[in-house]
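Researcher: Next entry in the queue.
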Amino acid sequence: MKRNSSLSSPTDFQRVFQSGQVISNKYVVLRYCSREEPADNRVAFVAGKKLGSAVVRNRAKRLLREVYRKHRDKITPGYDIVVIARYSLKDRTYWEAEKGLLNALIAGGLIKKSI
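Model: Structure for this entry, 115 residues:
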C-alpha cells in the first residue's frame, strides 16, 4: 500500500469518527466517510491495547492490511476508511479476517456483493 493511500492526519481521523458511518461485525468495526476529491481510498488500520501485546496487535493489522490489499480494486473509490480490529480477531486465521472485513465492506456498500 502506498504511503499516500494511508489515513494518518488527526483531523482526517476526527472527521471520519465524527461524521462518518459505522458498520461492525464480530471481527472488525468499519468507520468510513466520503472524501471531497473522489480519488483513491485512504485507509487506516487500528488495533487497541485491549487486543493484546504489540505482537498480537501488529499481526491483526497485518492480516487486515493484506485482505484490503487483495481486494482493493473491488472497493468503490473516494472514501476515507478506518478499520478497527476487535478482540475476537486475536487468534483467528487469515480466512476469518477476510470474511469479517469483506462482510463489513459489503454491508457498508463499499464493495459489490459479487466476490
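Model: The domain at 3-100 is CATH 3.30.230.10 (Ribosomal Protein S5; domain 2).
Researcher: Noted, moving on.
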